[in-house]
Specification:
mainly alpha; two-stranded antiparallel sheet; 5 helices; PFA4/ZDH16/20/ERF2-like; Palmitoyltransferase
């Protein structure tokens, strides 16, 4: 790996977090991509509202910049937000797919044959985010609780 150490269930090395994504930090990477996608969507919505507000009102009251500068800045922000929204949404989707199929990105690329017992998608989600389901699944500050998960989840 890029990190020069063994990572259990390594999915990939992420330059954004400067670390390998694996079993111990996959929940945090999934939440990271989800929240960046949501913030990007929020930025797009705010750009839309700001443009509509400026379009209906006098442009000089709308911004401290000149109207052409404001439009250029709004277009740049829209482009950046759209770019981040697409990229992080795709990353979020691939991570959720990897969790549901219990197969890392590296295993999918290598098309390795499954040598472990197949679990349900729900059991795979509980293995990453903790057991039982709670609002803590959405919190990056909550450590996944593996406590009383189903005993057959740990098939070797």
């Amino acid at each position: 790996s890029v990190c020069k150490r063994c990572i259990r269930k390594m999915d990939h090395h992420c330059p954004w977090v400067n670390n390998c994504v694996g079993e111990n930090n996959q929940k945090y990477f999934v939440l990271f991509t989800m929240y960046i996608a949501l913030i990007s969507l929020h930025a797009l919505i705010m750009v839309g509202f700001h443009f509509l507000y400026c379009f209906e009102e006098d442009w000089t009251k709308c911004s401290s910049f000149s109207p052409p500068t404001t439009v250029i800045l709004l277009i740049l922000l829209c482009f950046e937000a759209l770019l981040f929204l697409i990229f992080t949404s795709v990353m979020f989707g691939t991570q959720v797919h990897s969790i549901c199929t219990d197969e890392t990105g590296i295993e999918q690329l290598k098309k390795e044959e499954r040598r472990w017992a197949k679990k349900t998608k729900w059991m795979n989600m509980k293995a990453v985010f903790g057991h039982p389901f709670s609002i803590a699944w959405l919190s990056p500050f909550a450590t996944p609780d593996q406590g009383k998960a189903d005993p057959y989840q740990y098939v070797v």
